[in-house]
């Protein structure tokens, strides 16, 4: 073996060694961040929630105001998530499968909630539907309550969760193209039949993934909901708002008990998210095969 070949071999080994060192360092840094910023706070919340025992934990959750916050959170999510699911599927189908004027504008509007602060979005609804807005007198005369009521919370939640389903579906549907739908329509199938039997099976995992993310954000939203809710205890407080009130009242045991329940929902969401990511990645790889 010549000196040049030996030198190249040593250089290759040095590069490989440096690559492994960098990989180990990056993995270690990621683990430190995960432990410090994700797992430790979660463990602290759970430990504090059960500090006084399971009896007080259950008593805190059985409190009428806490139970009302749980029910309101689930109600808002049950309204906002299906709405954004229908919109997301329709918008993704239109953007990925058709060409029309205003497509780029629609994409920009879908991404708008990502660039606007949730507090600002909540304030916009107050300015539109509040007592001092130009719609305020008409709403009051017709006994329609939006701000400081459930409709305002639903509107704010719908806005902040607007992009999640659409943004998961658009790249996948664009990569799949339109050949299968065109073949189905050519064979005489209707548009609805084509959607439910051709399009939907190809996007089901991405759709479930987007719905899961949308639901997680809907249950955990604080900023926009805080502006439009009015913080009426037992009526317009979602779980995040109820936790804030309990903590500000120095009722730490109850605050951490409700936070533990919310953290449990988040942990369940994380597990489902990981499972759907695996299935979603598999379906996307199959879709991208030539």
Summarize, please.
The protein is mostly helical and 290 residues long. It is built from 13 helices and no strands. It has helices at 3-49, 54-62, 64-97, 103-115, 118-129, 136-141, 150-160, 163-176, 179-186, 191-220, 223-229, 239-248, 252-288.
Task: Please provide a written account of the structure.
The chain is an all-alpha fold. Helix content is 82%, strand content 0%. The chain is built from 13 helices and no strands. It has helices at residues 3-49, 54-62, 64-97, 103-115, 118-129, 136-141, 150-160, 163-176, 179-186, 191-220, 223-229, 239-248, 252-288. The longest helix is centred in the first third of the chain and has 47 residues, at 3-49. The radius of gyration is 25 Å and the shape is globular. The two termini are 43 Å apart. Residues 286-290 have low confidence and may be disordered.
Biggest beta-sheet profile: none
The SSE order reads: HHHHHHHHHHHHH
Oligomer: single chain
Class derived from helix and strand content:
mainly alpha
Strand content: under 5%
Radius of gyration: 25 Å
In DSSP terms (H or I, runs of 4 or more residues), the helix count works out at 13
The beta-strand count equals 0
Distance between the termini: 43 Å
Mean of pLDDT: 83
């Amino acid at each position: 073996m010549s000196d040049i070949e030996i030198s190249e071999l040593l250089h290759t080994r040095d590069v490989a060694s440096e690559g492994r060192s960098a990989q180990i360092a990056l993995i270690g840094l990621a683990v430190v961040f995960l432990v410090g910023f994700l797992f430790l706070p979660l463990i602290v919340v759970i430990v504090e929630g059960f500090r006084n025992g399971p009896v007080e934990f259950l008593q805190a959750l059985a409190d009428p105001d806490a139970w009302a916050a749980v029910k309101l959170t689930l109600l808002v999510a049950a309204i906002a998530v299906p709405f954004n699911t229908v919109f997301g599927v329709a918008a993704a189908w239109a953007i990925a499968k058709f060409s029309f004027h205003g497509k780029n504008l629609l994409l920009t509007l879908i991404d708008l909630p990502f660039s606007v602060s949730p507090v600002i979005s909540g304030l916009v609804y107050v300015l539109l539907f509040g007592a001092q807005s130009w719609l305020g007198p008409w709403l009051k005369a017709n006994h329609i309550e939006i701000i400081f009521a459930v409709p305002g919370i639903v509107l704010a939640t719908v806005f902040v969760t607007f992009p999640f389903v659409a943004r998961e579906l658009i790249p996948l549907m664009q990569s799949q193209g339109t050949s299968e739908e065109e073949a189905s329509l050519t064979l005489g199938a209707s548009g609805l039949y084509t959607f439910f039997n051709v399009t939907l099976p190809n996007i089901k995992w991405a759709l479930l993934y987007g719905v899961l993310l949308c639901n997680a954000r809907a249950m955990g939203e604080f900023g926009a909901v805080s502006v439009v809710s009015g913080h009426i205890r037992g009526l317009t407080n979602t779980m995040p708002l109820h936790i804030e009130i309990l903590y500000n009242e120095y009722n730490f045991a109850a605050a951490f008990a409700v936070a533990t329940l919310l953290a449990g929902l988040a942990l369940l969401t994380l597990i489902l998210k990981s499972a759907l990511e695996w299935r979603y990645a598999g379906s996307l790889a199959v879709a991208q095969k030539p």
